[in-house]
Write a structure and sequence with these properties.
single chain; 132 residues; 11% strand
Length: 132
């Protein structure tokens, strides 16, 4: 059985989920929790505007800055991976969490941390128009 996640917001959805659960073979595992609203596409676009603005000042690519900020904010682990060009093993930092899987609140906290860091370290802020 493939793991699945359901967001139940209405009584009819609850009834349909109940029927689905009753049809599942035993044993199985179920986890319930509060509804976690996902980050919006516009919030994600705003984050990438910020990374792009910072890239113009730092010389890093926006994707590199994103990885660095994920490591700074969420922590990281080091893994040994082969270099794509030489094949030699090299240590690489890998963030413990991805922004794409954060809920709205956690994503907003990450975005704010990026804004503060880029503003204080590099004088990079989004304009009022870009911030919306």
């Amino acid at each position: 059985m493939k793991e699945r996640s359901f967001h139940v917001q209405t009584e009819s959805q609850r009834a349909m989920l109940s029927q689905f659960v009753l049809r599942q073979p035993i044993p199985f595992q179920a986890t319930l929790g509060p509804f976690r609203e996902r980050r919006s596409n516009s919030a994600n676009s705003r984050l990438w505007l910020l990374h792009t603005a910072a890239s113009k000042v730092t010389g890093y690519e926006p994707e590199e800055l994103h990885e660095l900020m994920l490591c700074k904010h969420f922590g990281f682990t080091e893994v040994e991976r082969p270099d794509l060009l030489t094949g030699e093993l090299t240590m690489m930092r890998v963030p413990l969490k991805r922004s794409s899987t954060r809920d709205k609140k956690e994503f907003a906290e990450f975005m704010e941390a990026c804004e503060i860091f880029y503003g204080q370290e590099f004088g990079v802020w989004l304009s009022e128009m870009e911030a919306e």
